[in-house]
Design goal:
Shape of chain A: rod-shaped
Distance between the termini of chain B: 52 Å
Structural class of chain B: mainly alpha
Largest sheet of chain B: none
Largest sheet of chain A: none
Number of helices of chain A: 2
Number of helices of chain B: 11
Number of strands of chain A: 0
Radius of gyration of chain A: 61 Å
Structural class of chain A: mainly alpha
Radius of gyration of chain B: 23 Å
Strand content of chain A: under 5%
Largest interface: A-B, 28 and 39 residues
Shape of chain B: globular
Number of domains of chain B: 1
Helix content of chain B: over 70%
Number of strands of chain B: 0
Distance between the termini of chain A: 164 Å
Oligomer: heterotrimer
Order of helices and strands of chain B: HHHHHHHHHHH
Chains: A mainly alpha (about 160), B mainly alpha (about 270), C mainly alpha (about 80)
Chain lengths: ~160, ~270, ~80
């Protein structure tokens, strides 16, 4: 159990050689590989994060656009409904006007027919009275006197007619 | 593993060697050669440099393995490269876990220390081989290397004054200055005791485990010696597993204690 | 008593006593570490590392006795 200094020195040199070999062939390349991989994974992760953020932004944009489209469609539908209501109102107005016109016209016509009928009746009555009085008083009465007397008569009749 | 060894005819010498000077040991390539050619110069040379011979064998083995593993680095590691990456990453995280961020500078040294000691410890379990770390010379060499590197790091990182300040126990007040004559020799003794305890621990453990195996191999051989056959009962078999455990633990302890010595020498953040 | 006989008694006894002491120490240490791991399983790796390093310190004492034994062994015969 005695220290052999020659062996110690030899072992120290041996260990230093092992250290050099391992440093050259194991530690440097493998630590470099690990570092590279770590850096790569980090960049990949950052990349993925960026892409994810982009996708999120895009999705938000799409959502916004969809919402816009939705709102526009609703506005259009509302506008169309309003338009339709307006048209319906117009049509109703028109129809009402038409009905009124038709009614007015019909009333006018009726009025006119009535007036015509009155005139015609009056004429008929006049001529009937004329013919009757002609037949009755053929001989001595001249026509103008007769006409006057009959007109008075008719006037009286009219006033009677309008009474009720 | 020593099962194979039992078919060696020379194994009979184990029983004879048990009583000889020094602790018993299982014969290895070098002792077999020496037994056969003890009068030749090369056998005497090999016998004298037995431990260095096995250390060089381990060095060549490690060099070849690392060279083959790192020859063609692939992005997706396979086989040997994968294994080496696992080892390197594990040791890197281990050392950096203790030393912190600046530990990466000492990873090659401490990692090589661990791998080298582990290989040396396990080498003795291969039939025909011997653990170089069962010799005090080898472990003393490793401990001296660690000691030298730690002191160099201390001088380098703290500066000469900081280094002396560290040895004086960082006196900052009157009591500290008064305690300097006490602290200085204390620190020097504790600093010198570190390589001693490191080398003796490793040496004692590995030698103890090898002697245990050798004793049981010898026992197994002597139990059936009446047959006059070159066989033995593998009584040492359970102790091989114990030896594997001890080898790993001792390598880990050596490496982690060295790491802690570095940690104690590096400038502390709380100061 | 010749000093060889004295050594023959003393050396194994020395290792045995040293082993006894460090066995007690290791046992206490292991028990404490196991308890700590049981209490905080997530810190198991750190506790294990500290435990193994502590084991090494305690065990070293036995190893010193063993080394002494190896040194003195040659003088027995």
């Amino acid at each position: 159990m005695e220290l052999d200094y020659g062996q110690i020195v030899a072992q120290i040199i041996g260990f230093l050689v092992v250290l050099w070999i391992m440093n050259r062939f194991a530690w440097k390349p493998f630590l470099k590989i690990l570092d590279d991989r770590k850096a790569r994974i980090q960049t990949d992760l950052a990349d993925a994060e960026g892409k994810r953020a982009g996708a999120e932004k895009l999705e938000q944009q799409y959502q916004e656009k969809l919402r816009e489209i939705d709102a526009e469609a609703r506005a259009r539908i509302q506008a169309a409904v309003k338009n339709a209501e307006k048209i319906a109102a117009e049509i109703k107005d028109e129809a009402r006007q038409d009905v009124k016109g038709i009614l007015d016209r019909a009333r006018d016509e009726i009025e006119r027919d009535k007036a015509e009928a009155l005139v015609a009746l009056r004429n008929d009555v006049v001529s009937m009275a004329l013919r009757a009085s002609e037949k009755v008083l053929k001989e001595n009465l001249d026509e103008t006197r007769h006409r006057k007397a009959i007109a008075d008569f008719v006037k009286n009749m009219e006033s009677i007619d309008e009474q009720p | 593993m020593h099962l194979l060894l039992n078919v060696f005819p020379v194994v009979m010498t184990v029983a004879e060697r048990a009583g000889a000077e020094g602790p018993p040991e299982v014969p290895n390539i070098v002792t077999i050669l020496y037994d056969q050619f003890s009068s030749y110069g090369f056998a005497q040379f090999l016998h004298h440099w037995e431990n260095v011979f096995f250390s060089v064998l381990i060095a060549i083995l490690l060099g070849v393995v690392s060279y083959v593993a790192s020859r063609r680095p692939a992005v997706i590691p396979r086989g040997l490269q994968n294994f080496m990456e696992w080892v390197v990453e594990g040791l890197n995280s281990f050392v950096c876990g203790i030393l912190g961020r600046e530990g990466s500078r000492y990873v090659p040294f401490l990692g090589t220390l661990f791998i080298y000691i582990l290989c040396m410890n396990l080498f003795g379990l291969i039939p025909g081989m011997k653990s170089p770390s069962s010799s005090i010379d080898t472990t003393a060499a490793l401990a001296i290397t660690v000691f030298a590197y730690v002191q160099y790091t201390g001088v380098r990182r703290l500066g000469i004054l900081g280094y002396l300040d560290h040895f004086a126990g960082n006196p900052r007040d009157v009591i500290g200055i008064l305690l300097v004559p006490l602290m200085f020799p204390l620190h020097i003794i504790s600093e010198l005791a570190k390589p001693l305890s490191l080398s003796l621990r490793l040496f004692g453990n590995i030698l103890g485990e090898d002697v245990l195996i050798a004793v049981f191999v010898g026992l197994g051989v002597t139990m059936v010696a009446f047959l006059h056959l070159p066989v033995g009962i593998p009584l040492h078999f359970p102790f091989v597993f114990l030896a594997m455990l001890t080898s790993v633990v001792q390598a880990l302890v050596f490496a982690s204690l060295s790491t802690i010595y570095f940690l104690m020498m590096l400038p502390h953040e709380e100061h | 008593m010749p000093f060889q006989s004295a050594l023959g008694f003393a050396v194994p006894l020395a290792v045995a006593i040293a082993a006894l002491g460090s066995a007690i120490g290791l046992g206490r240490m292991g028990a404490a570490a196991m308890e700590a791991i049981g209490r905080q399983p997530e810190a198991a790796s750190k506790i294990q590392l500290a435990m193994i390093i502590g084991f090494a310190f305690v065990e070293a004492l036995t190893i010193y006795a063993l080394v002494t034994m190896f040194i003195l062994q040659g003088k027995i015969s």
